[in-house]
Design a protein that fits this description.
single chain, alpha+beta, 3 domains, two-stranded antiparallel ribbon
């Protein structure tokens, strides 16, 4: 504690000096000293985290695992927390790396890929490979160290059999879903060649431009295609496991006044974006909740204030199986004129909205829409209806 406080005091004293008043040579020397101190402070932090993790300190005193405490209480990014804990948990087994960190020769960013690489090597190769990678890190930036780590693994695998290679590659697969500060989800991962080929084969046709009004970029179309796959999976009752005896459904907790405003039966009234959250904490607007509810079993939990529950409703506006089958025979795919999205990638939309316009759940009032065109009618100035001859019509409003 005294060492940490001394470091803070030194930082405060240094920060009181105006760098613009410092001559060039001393200024550059100061910057180099700060970077060296930063590396050594990170090494000190990693040692502390290793001790705290071993003794479950954050769990006992803060109710969080060490990594979650770094993210939730100390506001580190998920990647930064993972990097620190990867190095911290490896310190007792990797004394060479611990010494290099403590001396300031390398940074935590250098150490993390080395730790991950050495863990994948044969026991007889670990120590020598670690030494080579550490020595190389003195002259390389972390990105080049990561590339060197990849080459090290490739070289280590040179003598393995085809079966051993398949097992190693298969064991390297992963997929992470990370929440961003903007309320979005970042996806990162690595798939085997077979998994990647299967995913491409499904995503590519779903990511094609759907019609002349489709102005999405390629990355946006691929993101929507992946969401289409997930949405389609939700429609297969036998595909997903039950949770507490029920198929997956959406629970939406919304403030009472914004909910009433969003459901007010006036077609031209704008919908506000405040007041809605799901039970897992992901913020959604009333408009988004209403769109999700078009063909999902929604359990409304209507709130006034932070704790007063006004109503917990039953599943509503579900399309009966007979109407579903009739619409499937009629639509064959997305009902938006010109769209080629297949039927399995679509959901049924109430042409006259169920809540806002009191539209009936009937064959005449239903049409299959893909995710993109479903989003379009809920969020953009587009109108879709069925004319007296039963043909779907669209227009910008």
């Amino acid at each position: 504690m005294r060492a940490a406080q001394a470091a803070l005091d030194a930082v405060k004293a240094a920060a009181a000096v105006d760098p613009h008043a410092t001559p060039d040579e001393p200024l550059l020397a100061d910057i180099e000293a700060v970077l060296q101190a930063r590396r050594r402070l990170d090494a000190y932090l990693v040692k502390q985290l290793q001790a705290a993790h071993t003794r479950d300190v954050t769990a006992e005193l803060r109710g969080r695992a060490t990594k979650r405490w770094l993210i939730e209480n100390q506001r580190l990014s998920g990647s930064a927390a993972i990097r620190l804990m990867t190095v911290a948990t490896a310190l007792p087994m990797r004394p060479q790396l611990a010494d290099a960190l403590e001396s300031g020769e390398i940074s935590v960013e250098h150490a993390a890929p080395i730790v991950t690489t050495v863990a994948k090597l044969h026991p007889a190769e670990k120590d020598l490979s670690e030494k080579i990678l550490l020595e190389a890190s003195h002259d390389l930036d972390p990105d080049l160290v990561r590339k060197l780590c990849v080459k090290t693994l490739d070289a280590s695998a040179a003598g393995e059999t085809a079966e051993q290679r398949r097992e190693r590659v298969h064991g390297s697969r992963y997929l992470n879903l990370l929440d961003t500060w903007q309320g979005m989800t970042r996806i990162e991962g690595m798939l085997t060649a077979e998994q990647g080929a299967a995913l491409r084969a499904v995503l590519e046709p779903l990511a094609q431009r759907l019609s002349g009004d489709d102005d999405r970029l390629g990355g946006q179309r691929r993101a929507d295609a992946l969401a289409t796959l997930a949405t389609a999976a939700l429609g297969f009752d036998d595909l997903l496991p039950e949770f507490n005896g029920e198929q997956p459904h959406v629970n939406v907790v919304m403030q009472y006044d914004p909910l009433l405003d969003a459901l007010r039966p006036f077609a031209d009234k704008p919908v506000t974006d405040d007041g809605g959250v799901t039970i897992n904490g992901t913020e959604v607007s009333p408009a988004t909740a209403r769109m999700l509810a078009c063909d999902a079993q929604i359990i409304p939990v209507v709130m006034r204030g932070p704790s007063e529950v006004l109503d917990i409703g039953r599943a509503t506006r579900v399309w009966p199986k007979a109407i579903r089958k009739a619409l499937q025979l009629e639509d064959h795919g997305c009902g938006w004129p010109g769209c080629q999205m297949p039927l399995w990638a679509c959901r049924i939309h109430h042409l006259r909205w169920w809540h806002r316009d009191h539209g009936p759940t009937s064959k005449q009032n239903g049409v299959h829409l893909c995710n993109f065109h479903h989003w379009l009618v809920h969020n953009k100035p587009w109108k879709i209806w069925r004319n007296p001859m039963g043909k779907i019509q669209i227009a910008r409003t």
